[in-house]
Amino acid sequence: MSDAPARAAQPETVRLRDGSRLRIRAIRPDDKAAIAEGFARMSPASRYRRFFAPLSELSADDLRYLTEVDHHDHEALIGFDRETGDPVGVARYIRGVEPTEAEVAVTVVDDWQGRGAATALLEHLVRCAREAGIEHFVAVVLPDNLDALELFRHLAPDGSTERRTTSGLVEFLMEVPETPRPGELPPESTLARALRGAAHSALEINPWRLIRRRIK
What is the CATH number assigned to the segment(s) 4-215? Predict the structure, then answer.
C-alpha cells in the first residue's frame, strides 16, 4: 500500500480567517477521548444533522471505528485548537464499492462553526483523497431536507450526479478537484461551493448511516 496519503496528512497548523489557529493531523487510535469530548460539545440538533440520528453518546465500537482507520480506504483528519489543545472537528472519507468514490464527512463542534475550520479540514482531506486515488466524494442528504436539495442542485448543476439509495437517501457525486497549491480548494469547484452551503447549515455531508452499518 502506498504511503502517499500518510505524507499528505502530515501535521500542519493553519490560521483561520478569524485569526485562530487549527492544528490538523491524521487521526490516531489514542484520539478516542478527543472524539468523545468533541461529540459532548455538540448540541442535540447538531448531532442529529451530522449523524442522521438522535445519538446521545458514542459507543466503544463507534469510537474504535472512528479512530482505528487504515488511512487509505478510510481516512480521517482531526483538528485541534492550537492554543488550548481542545478538539475542534474531524473530516473523513470512506471508500465505497467503486474504488474511485468515497463518502465524505465533515463535523465541527458548535462553537467553531462558521470560522473556516470545516474548510481547512476538507482542503487537507482533498489532498489525501487525491493521492489515494479518490476522484469523487459522495455527499449524503436526507430526502426531507428540501433546502439542502435545492441548494445543491443550484450550486452544482455541472460536474455532479444525483442518485437515490435503496433506503431513500439522496446522494450527490462531486468531483474531487486537483488543488493548485497544498491546502487550497479551487473556489468555484463543486466541492468548494457545496462546502460553502454546508457552512451555512443548508447542506449536511456525513456518511454516518454507512458507518453505523459497518460497525454492526
Answer: 3.40.630.30
